[in-house]
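haha ok so turns out i had the wrong file open the whole time. this is the CORRECT one, sorry everyone. sequence first:
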Amino acid sequence: MKKFSHAICITFFILSGCDTGSSSSNQDVVKAYLEAGGTFHDMKTGQISFVDPASLQFTSWSKPFKDDENSIGGCVNINAKNSFGGYTGLKNYSYYIENNQVTAMFQSKCSK
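then structure:
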């Protein structure tokens, strides 16, 4: 029994090295980035930012995934206000975080 509990502990420590960051900390990084006026890539118009970053509504955060050695990715639905003050409806966005900084964000259909 003692060997079994040691095996479980070793497995736990090995798997904890594969951490993708907590969902809430990733969410905080993305929210802070956008609320500070961070930009995202739109295929039609290039780099743009939201008109009213303080009014953003975030829903349906995906489980974070490891993109490569240093980058964590994820998807979120965002509802934003347009220049007339009305909400535009939920749109899908992918984001990538490296060293607690958003390195890329773009509107896309999220596959993960």
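Residues 20-107 form a domain with the Nuclear Transport Factor 2; Chain: A, fold (CATH 3.10.450).
again sry for the mixup
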